[in-house]
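Workshop exercise sheet. Pairs work together: one partner reads the sequence aloud, the other fills in the structure field after running the prediction. Swap roles for the next sheet.
Pair: D.N. / O.F.
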Amino acid sequence: MGQNKKPGQKPEAITLKAVAQHIGLTPGTVSAVLNDSPSARSIPQETKNRIHAAAKELNYRPNFFARSLRNKRTYTIGVIAEEIGDSYSSPIISGIEQYLRKRDYFFLTVVHRHDPALLSRYSQLLSQRGVEGIITVDTTIQDEPLLPMVAIAGHKKLNGVTNITLDHMKAAVLALNHFKDMSHQHVAFMKGNPVSSDAKDRWDAICKVAAEMGMKIDPELTVQIDTDDPTPMLGYPFTKQLLARKRPFTALFAYNDISAIGAIRALQEQGLRVPQDVSVMGFDDIPGAAFHTPSLTTVQQPLHRMGEVAAQVLLERIDGKREYLTEIAIEPKLVVRESTAKAPAAR
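Structure field:
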């Protein structure tokens, strides 16, 4: 086959029928296995292995368009994110991409930056372009979706949406107990921007756990972030606000890692040492947290893994292989590094 090809002429594509003839099976059996159709479940694993080996040996490439027309599928999903290149969304989208790539799915990504008009428009555009499901990242969904949807950091219960959430109560317990163990009695807090989907649940959890522990939250030591800057400027000016109030504190619980890094810079400019004078804790455990100076103590949420889980759940829902779940909880973990230490009075 292909022996009389002229130089530069493309070789003939190997057909599914040729694969079937090569191993003496029917095209229907080969098609069921290579397309992972429901009828393939009754085919012995040994036969499946033979088919996959033959397809690899012959360099068989399925005709995507024929497959799409036959199954009325696009094998494409949509991803709606608040940002793409920021330290929170980037590892999540990387996890989504890694899972989808192994299953020959494509994804279209749109960025709304908390603009309600853009969010509504992008949802419609993705549906018009034939996506089979949607994953949202740090996005508050108001209406029930027309397609299967998985919301990373989703908190609103809607029909058709599977929320992947962090256990913020446990996160608050881990963080506040660490400060307590370090003898910190004057702790400052950064509240997240209300447009961030995690902000309210995280703050509510901190307040509840603090009350149960008998830890007082001083309003003068609490600052509200009101920007969505994806750089350390998210924390820098608000730490300056805290310092300007002249109310002493020995520890700061930032909203996330990027705001913690900005906070450390503001403290150092004031002549304060971290952690000797003020301990600082972040949230997320972004890739740069371990390499900052000082390295950042933080509440870790496995962002890359959350992206993988979201993609897996969505594809299983699209293929009818998973029962619809309203929520999947992810466990946080405390990672202690150099930015926290005993309170000065306790040393």
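Discussion prompt: Residues 26 and 300 are 51 Å apart (CA to CA). What would you look at next?
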